[in-house]
Amino acid sequence: MTPEFVVALAKTSMETTLLICAPMLGTGLAVGLLVSIFQTVTSIQEMTLTFVPKIVIVFLAVIYFFPWMLQYMVDFTTQIMTSIPHVIR
Question: Which residues have CB under 8 Å from 16's CB, separation 6+?
């Protein structure tokens, strides 16, 4: 196992993690921004108003993007499993 392999594996792992988390984080950010704008315009300062829409939208994003996320994780895991014989040498 070379240092280059370890660095490449760490880089790929971080990229995979960021890509899998991006749909939920992006939708949560967008909904949070929209709710904040709504609160500013209407002068409503209810703290629980931000949580419920974010939870619902992030949950829907997980349901919608789950097949893609699962396939991406399976591909990544398969890639790691197939590279094990090359690491042992």
Answer: 72, 73, 76
Q: Which residue range(s) make up the domain with 83?
A: 3-88
Residue 87 tokens read as 């690491």
Distances (CA, A) of 3 to 7, 25, 81, 82: 6, 32, 19, 19
pTM metric for this prediction: 0.77
Q: What is the pLDDT along the chain (89 residues), one digit of tens a residue?
A: 788 888 999 999 999 999 999 999 999 999 999 999 998 898 888 878 888 989 999 999 999 999 999 999 999 999 999 988 888 87
